[in-house]
Amino acid sequence: MKIGGRDDFENRYMGKFRALAANYGVFVEYERDRAGRDIGLHLTQPDSNRDGKIVTPALIWFQMKGIMDGTLSREEYDAVEEVALDLEVAHLRFWYLNVQPTYLALYIESVDRFLAIDLQKWVGAHFGADILTLEQKTVRVKVAKKNELDNEFFRTVLHGNLVPILRQSLRNENDKEIARFLRDSSVVQWLSRCQQQGIQARLTVVKWISKMRTEAYFEAREQDGDWELFRTHWQYSMGELALAFPYVKFTPETRAEMVRYPETIEDFDGNEFQIWHESFIAIETETGMEIDDDELEGECLLELGDGEFSFGDMGGGEIVEHRLALELNEIGVRWAETLAVLVKAEVLSVDSEPHMVSVAPWHARDV
User: Fold this and answer.
1) How far apart are CA 257 and CA 161, in angstroms?
2) Which residues pair with 324 in a beta bridge?
3) Angle, vertex CA 8, rays to CA 75 and CA 15, nearest 5
4) pLDDT digit string, tens, across residues 280-333
5) Nearest CA among 220, 216, 186 for reference residue 201
6) Taking a C-beta distance cutoff of 8 angstroms, is the pair 199, 179 a contact?
7) How far apart are CA 28 and CA 84, in angstroms?
8) What b/e sequence results for 40-58 when a residue is b if at least 16 CB atoms lie within 10 Å of its CB, and e otherwise?
9) How many CB atoms lie within 10 A of CB 9?
10) Please, what sign has the CA dihedral across residues 322, 330, 232, 242?
11) What is the per-residue pLDDT across 7-35, written as a single tens digit (0 to 9) for each?
12) Residues 31, 35, 36, 42: what is their CA dihedral angle, to the nearest 10 degrees?
């Protein structure tokens, strides 16, 4: 018996999808295809002890589509920024109204790659409730090539789907803060353990003068030990530190204090008047000694939040390095207590191994 070319193609890309997605969840399927969705994935996380996985409360669904090599060649794919396909309006209505999100997983045979977007959000952005009364059979959906189905996709989708689930546990936080809680749960747990065990923790911040990137290195050391790196955090256009890490209290190795001083000058008629200047002084936190330097560079300042600043060391005219002691603030203590409950209940898992996080616009996905 013969298997048609289209059926063979679908079998092959479904196998590829399963091999890719198996690292991130447990598959869920309908006994009969009656809901316009091909396959579900109950998202998982590695267990904190690295001896298995936990099944999170997040369940998502995929609608699978594929474009064959003969329809879109590699050269044609490389020449465009988006890939387009037509989807049925009836299906789009269903996905838009569904409580659980449905993602389009689009396989491009010529480049052996999956793209993926959140169909519910896509409909919301392009039609909203008007999709319910749209009088046409199909709609052309365009998927940007940045939306690869990769590790960043699954990380973003997991966190995005856990936010509404955690609203009850984190009643004092808004959705943006809950997303931050999920992103930085490993740091919260790590810093909480450091404080409980009397281990010194610090943050080394490297700001580039000619770039928009800020590098933050979370480190810890036991008494008389060496500093050991726990997390490398790179962020594009970070801004003040208190907004980037709202759960931490920072104590800079060298702090900067703003000062104002008057200057009396005369106008052309000999009348005296005062003008005020603003500057700053740098003080070593441990000794309280002011740094004696007539030409402190303003580029060496790092805004911590609440009018506080760190003064860093200039390196080669290209980078400024700041070192700050760390402890959890009131928000951090609350997050640590909530996190301990969620981890014990096996709702969440937290990475306890050294790792890296990169926060930048080019990691964004339409999910």
Assistant:
1) 43
2) 203, 252
3) 85
4) 888 898 898 888 766 678 788 889 988 889 999 998 889 999 999 999 999 999
5) 220
6) no
7) 28
8) bbebbbeebeeeebeebeb
9) 17
10) negative
11) 899 999 999 999 999 999 999 998 776 67
12) -70
Cβ contact 335:275 at 8 Å: no
Taking each helix axis from N to C end, the angle separating 175-183 and 185-197, rounded to the nearest 10 degrees, works out to 60
Residues of the chain within CATH 3.40.1350.10 domain(s) are 5-164
What SS3 string covers the chain?
CCCCHHHHHHHHHHHHHHHHHCCCEEEECCCCCCCCCCEEEEEEEECCCCCCEEEEEEEEEEEEEEECCCCCCHHHHHCCCEEEEEEEHHHHHHHHHCCCCEEEEEEEHHHCEEEEEEHHHHHHHHCHHHHHHCCCCEEEEEEECCCECCHHHHHHHHHHHHHHHHCCCCCCCCHHHHHHHHHCHHHHHHHHHHHHHCCEEEEEEEEECCCCEEEEEEEEECCCCCCEEEEEEEEECCCCHHHHCCCEEEEECEEEEEEEEEEEEECCCCCEEEEEEEEEEEEECCCCCECCCCCCCHHHEEEEECCEEEECEEECCCEEEEEEEEEECHHHHHHHHHHHHHHHCCCCCCCCCCEEEEECHHHCCCC
Burial of 85 (0-12, 13-18, 19+ CB in 10 A): middle
Q: How many CB atoms lie within 10 A of CB 238?
A: 20
The two tokens of residue 202 are 């610090």
Structure tokens at 28: 């869920």
Could you tell me which CATH class the domain 5-164 is placed in? alpha beta
Per residue in 120-158, pLDDT (tens digit) is 999 999 999 999 999 999 999 999 999 999 999 999 999
Report the Cα 122 to chain-centroid distance in Å: 20
Sheet hosting strand 301-305, strand order edge to edge: 272-284, 254-266, 308-311, 301-305
